[in-house]
Automatic annotation (TrEMBL):
<dbReference type="GO" id="GO:0005759">
    <property type="term" value="C:mitochondrial matrix"/>
</dbReference>
<dbReference type="Pfam" id="PF05347">
    <property type="entry name" value="Complex1_LYR"/>
</dbReference>
<dbReference type="InterPro" id="IPR008011">
    <property type="entry name" value="Complex1_LYR_dom"/>
</dbReference>
<feature type="domain" description="Complex 1 LYR protein">
    <location>
        <begin position="8"/>
        <end position="67"/>
    </location>
</feature>
<comment type="similarity">
    <text>Belongs to the complex I LYR family. SDHAF1 subfamily.</text>
</comment>
<protein>
    <recommendedName>
        <fullName>Complex 1 LYR protein domain-containing protein</fullName>
    </recommendedName>
</protein>
<keyword id="KW-0496">Mitochondrion</keyword>
<dbReference type="GO" id="GO:0034553">
    <property type="term" value="P:mitochondrial respiratory chain complex II assembly"/>
</dbReference>
<dbReference type="InterPro" id="IPR045295">
    <property type="entry name" value="Complex1_LYR_SDHAF1_LYRM8"/>
</dbReference>
<keyword id="KW-0143">Chaperone</keyword>
């Protein structure tokens, strides 16, 4: 199945979020994974052709990931 560039970007961000969750302490890794899943699921209703919204959500997601991947962040909840 061929994916568009923006679909690949979304999947890459999701994979990166899950990878970063694996770097957190074992007892809180599920919290980070659940947060990532919930964040992506919250926007499932966005139209696939609404590129401006998707690009905005990607930028916001990357910024959040940058903050949450810092070593000082030990836990997360939704």
């Amino acid at each position: 199945m061929k994916r568009s560039g923006i679909q690949r970007d979304v999947l890459a961000l999701y994979k990166l979020c899950l990878r970063e969750a694996g770097k957190k302490p074992t007892e809180v890794q599920n919290n980070f994974r659940n947060y990532a899943r919930a964040s992506f699921r919250a926007h499932l209703d966005v139209n696939q052709r609404d590129f401006a919204t998707i690009e905005h959500l990607l930028r916001v997601g990357r910024r959040k990931l940058e903050v949450y991947s810092q070593p000082g962040i030990k836990n997360i909840s939704r």
